[in-house]
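Entry 0007
Protein: ATP-binding cassette domain-containing protein
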Amino acid sequence: MTMPILEARDLSKLFPGPKKLFTPARFVTAVDRVSMSVMPGETLAIVGESGSGKSTLGRLLLRLLGASEGRVFYQGEEITHASGARLNQLRRELQIIFQDPFASLNPRMTVEQIVGEPLWLHQNMKKTDRQYRVSELLRT
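Output (structure tokens):
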């Protein structure tokens, strides 16, 4: 049986709520016991209403935020508490595109440049090879 590339088990994130004098601490639940997996060849799209926790879930999966509860696995390895060099390596292998296109896409770049940039950064491809690969990716 094929192993998921990325998996979350009962992932939750609580943020401290507003503090009031003489009242117990309150928390706001941003992500509540999410379990999901991404198999080889799949792409995950997280959609929902504004404020539903989409960006928070993405940040939890990439370990940009620490989870309040639950576990995250990448290629079978638990990465919930990964740090340092291992965490940097994971962030080169995983990608999130946030819902705000102005925050995630540079309007001065062409689609070819945006798609080709990771190939140049992480695989150091020659320009002609990169252009060919980008055109392949955009055709699929």
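Curator remark: The chain has two domains: 6-98, 105-140. The beta strands are 6-16, 27-38, 69-74, 77-78.
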